[in-house]
Each structure stands twice: as structure tokens, then as C-alpha cells.
Amino acid sequence: MESTQFPSLEAIKSAAERIKPFVHHTPILSSSAINEIAGCEIFFKCENFQKVGAFKARGAANAVLKLSEEERSLGVATHSSGNHAAALARAAKVAGIPAYIVMPSNAPEIKKKAVKGYGGIIIECEPNLQARETTLEKVVEETGATFIPPYDFMDVIEGQATCALEILEEKPDLDILMAPVGGGGLLGGTALLVHLMKPEIKVIAGEPEGADDAFQSFQAGKLIPQTGPKTIADGLLTSLGKLNFELISDLVEEILLASESEIIEAMRLVYERMKIVIEPSSAVPLAALLANKEKFAGKKVAIILSGGNVDLGKLPF
């Protein structure tokens, strides 16, 4: 990690204080039934109970609150098909500034509704990365708004790291901390915080087999872009970010893959045994754990349930 200056533990603690009035300190829950099935002790950090229903509220709030007065007056902009869109719209609303959100035309209706509900201004585009980026450039040019990237951005990574900070303050004697990986903001921030605070704890990621660019990149030691991802875990379709890859390749122990049927089974298990709503992306680390029980036998494991924004009309069970 020589080449890039990442946030210090003090900076992450400052971020936690900065965003405290604007986010929930989410609970950590456990299930003896799931522990028995898994053969280890699991603590679920419930970011599905977070503002906007996902951990993304943390990074978005931190990024908006760190803007200068002048930057704030012109608003913020991003491209996102999901939770970051809603998180940034909400953070902007709290700050009393406009949020311009470029969303692909095929973004889930529930996510569009959330963005509109927080007062975000939606600009639709074709459902591909190039269209998202060129539309965003145009919006930024016309409005002067500050682009807040969804994951590959230092202030966002710093904000996402506050989730792991809360976990370790409550459960300092963990063996393993798990998070899902898509763009890598949550996993990168988690790995950084654990490295700075309790480096003896292993950080392990869960990723869908059908969107495994982080796994491939991790194995190859170089960034391999996502191509044609296909998974029910719609929050993990995006390509791993450069900053996050740097953190992950240095500080993450392992990335484990989960099949579609394993993800659905893990999601169902949480619904049935814990009676809480999670989105498919949240189930991926548990799915990966259950597919590799021998690695976790008898260990104390925390899993970040990253979000709960699921279209109930499209449940896979």
C-alpha cells in the first residue's frame, strides 16, 4: 500500500463522528439455529436496517459532509442503479443541496422510487457503463455539481469503513470478518479498518460465481474488468474499483465464491431463521461460508449484511 495514501484510523474515527447524526448505529444479531448449521459463531451486522436500507448511507454522508460550502451550493452528481443513488440523494437532502442521479433505464423500480422519495433528480440513460459515464459528464458540465463516485473514492471508502469500526468496538475478539464484494468500497474500507485496528482478524469476502471479477483480479494480481455479469445479487454486478483493488489485494485473506442456488438458500435461511429482510447481495458472504464450512469451524465470524432493498414481488422463493 506504499503508492496510495489511505485514511488513517483517526480519519475513520473522525468520519464516524461526522456522520453519526445522519446514520444508524446498526445492531449486531445472531441466530443459534444458523450457528448450528454453520458450525461456527456468526454475528450479523445489520446494515439492512441502515438509513436508505444499506451501508451506502455511510460513504455518501461522509463524502457530502466533507465538501466545501462552495461545492455544496452546486450540488452533487453520480451514476448508480441502486443503493448509492438513494444514499447520495438522501445525503444531499439532509445537506439541503441538489442531487443529480444518472440511472440506467432498466434500474429496479424500487430503487428509482427511493431516489425520487429523497428528492433526487433522475436522468435516465442506456443501460451500459459508457452511457452512464458520458451522461454523467454532461450533467456535471451543465450543473457544476461534484461527482461522488459510488465506491472508488477515498471519502466513500472512509465512510464505509465506519461499519467495521462499529463491529470491532462491539466484538473485538473476532477471528474473521466477512463482507460481500462488488465495486469494493465496503470490502476495501473493512479491510483497511481491520488492518489498522486488529490486524490479527482475517478479512474474507464473498462474491457470486456469476460476477467474479474481484476473485479473478485477486488471483491474477491485476485488475480484470467485469464482463457480462449474471447474478441475482444485483448490488454486486459492478467492476472492482482501482483504489479498492489496492486495499483488497494487500489486506484481504481470501475471496470465496457462491453459486446462485447457494445465495438463494442463504437468503432464505436468514428470512426463515432471523425473520429479517435482506437483499441477495447480503446473503453472499453467508452462502460462501456455508459452502466452505471447514474454513470457519469453531471460529467467531462477523458478517456484514450489506442491505435490505429487495423487490418483494421478485423474491426467489
From TrEMBL:
One Gene Ontology biological process: D-serine biosynthetic process
Family annotation (InterPro entries): Ser/Thr_deHydtase_PyrdxlP-BS (IPR000634), TrpB-like_PALP (IPR001926), TrpB-like_PALP_sf (IPR036052)
Pfam family name, one: PALP
PROSITE patterns hit by this protein: DEHYDRATASE_SER_THR
Entry's transmembrane regions: none
Cofactor: pyridoxal 5'-phosphate; Mg(2+); Ca(2+); Mn(2+)
MF annotations from Gene Ontology: ATP binding; L-serine ammonia-lyase activity; magnesium ion binding; pyridoxal phosphate binding; serine racemase activity; threonine racemase activity
Listed SUPFAM superfamilies: Tryptophan synthase beta subunit-like PLP-dependent enzymes
Keywords of this entry: Lyase, Magnesium, Pyridoxal phosphate
Domain Tryptophan synthase beta chain-like PALP: 20-307
Superkingdom in the source lineage: Bacteria
Family: Belongs to the serine/threonine dehydratase family.
Protein name: Threonine dehydratase
Gene source species: Algoriphagus zhangzhouensis
